[in-house]
Every structure is written in structure tokens, then in C-alpha cells.
Design a protein that fits this description.
- This protein is mostly beta strands and 218 residues long.
- The chain has one domain: Porin, CATH 2.40.160.20.
- Helix content is 6%, strand content 68%.
């Protein structure tokens, strides 16, 4: 049987223990966010025509781990289910009807934040992969094209605010620029003067996402 005085000491110790883990400067060790919003995509231009991608809802999750005062390491995933359509620029060549397209971003990056009272502003930079998963494309000629998923390098830039209701819970609002990078080729040159790696790449389109959600600190 625990003596009453010992039980009181244990109870006080539990009440005094922090509700969440913190870094030495008082920041949470980890933050988990769920976001939802709307994503827009610029037109993709090709030699044979243009590809339009509809605006659509976007959803995602973000895990931030404290690295340094005001700097976090970030894991980000977003998904958007939209439609794409090809419009031919060649007279007589068929265009395509709208077809479903799934876009997934998988990113690693860093977040820099500045807090004033209960409001925290932040900026993010990430890099990783984008997975584009289309469905078979039906042409206006009646033919159907089989297409496959593709994975490309990508990066994102974001800025936003976290408004804390309490230390463990905040409303997050953000604007994010997302860009897939198409790498078309590369070459390696070596000689007496040294070596050079040349890569041919481009950004076929840019996407803008405007999202809101909740951040849980622990």
C-alpha cells in the first residue's frame, strides 16, 4: 500500500510533467499537419499541341522534426485527383477527351519559422519526386492510347502562417508552388583539364496550391 504522502508526491510529479516533448529552447520536438485545399496547374505545351490540367482539390500530410531553433526537417506528401486533356495543334490530327490524372508529390525539405505570440510565420523549400498516374487516353478519332505512370524529380516552395489556439494545436494556412522537373538527357565529359557533367532538364509546368488545415504539436 502506498503511503498518502508518497501518493501525493507522485501525483504532483505527474501534473508538473510537460504535456509534450520540447527542445531546449521550448519548441515542440515534432509537428504533424493535415491539409486540404485547391490546386491549379499551368498549361503544358508540346510540339504537337497543348495539355490542359484542370484545377482540383488537393490533400496532404506533413511531419516536421525540430533540427535547430526556428528550423525543422520536413517530410511532405500531397495528392490531387484531376483531369487532363490534349488539344492538337496540327490540322487534321486528333485531340483527346478529358481523362483522369492522379498527381502525388513525395518531398523532403526544411522549414524556417518565426513566431510572434500565438502567430508563427514560416517558409519552406523541399525537393523529391512527383508521381503522375494517368488513365488510358481516348482520342477524338475513336482510338485509345495506353499510357503508363511516370516519376520525375520535383521541388516545392511554400509560405504561410500557423495560428495557435493552444500550444498543442494550430490552424495552418499556406500557399505552395510545386514544379515537376523533366530531365531529357545527360552527358559526362572528361579530359586533361577535368571532368564535367551536363544535364538537360526543364520545367514543363508549375502548380499553385492554396491550403489550410490543422497542426498538432507533440
Amino acid at each position: 500500500m502506498i503511503p498518502p504522502r508518497a501518493g501525493a508526491v507522485v501525483l504532483l510529479a505527474l501534473l508538473a510533467r510537460p504535456a509534450r516533448a520540447e527542445t531546449p529552447d521550448g519548441r515542440p520536438v515534432a509537428q504533424l499537419s493535415g491539409i486540404a485545399g485547391y490546386q491549379l496547374t499551368s498549361t503544358v505545351y508540346t510540339n504537337g499541341g497543348s495539355i490542359g490540367i484542370d484545377g482540383a482539390g488537393t490533400y496532404g500530410a506533413l511531419l516536421a522534426l525540430a533540427l535547430h531553433p526556428e528550423v525543422d526537417f520536413e517530410l511532405l506528401w500531397t495528392i490531387s485527383s484531376t483531369q487532363a486533356r490534349f488539344v492538337s495543334a496540327t490540322p487534321g490530327a486528333p485531340s483527346a477527351f478529358p481523362s483522369p490524372l492522379m498527381i502525388n508529390y513525395f518531398q523532403l525539405g526544411v522549414t524556417k519559422s518565426v513566431r510572434t505570440g500565438m502567430v508563427e510565420s514560416f517558409g519552406e523549400a523541399t525537393a523529391g519526386l512527383v508521381l503522375l498516374s494517368p488513365t488510358p487516353v481516348r482520342l477524338t478519332s475513336g482510338d485509345t492510347l495506353a499510357v503508363t505512370s511516370t516519376v520525375q524529380f520535383s521541388f516545392t516552395l511554400a509560405a504561410g502562417l500557423r495560428i495557435r489556439f493552444v500550444e498543442q494545436l494550430a490552424l495552418v494556412l499556406e500557399a505552395r508552388l510545386l514544379a515537376p522537373v523533366y530531365i531529357s538527357g545527360g552527358a559526362f565529359f572528361a579530359g586533361g583539364g577535368g571532368a564535367v557533367l551536363a544535364v538537360s532538364a526543364g520545367i514543363p509546368c508549375v502548380q499553385g496550391a492554396f491550403s489550410g488545415g490543422l497542426t498538432f504539436s507533440f
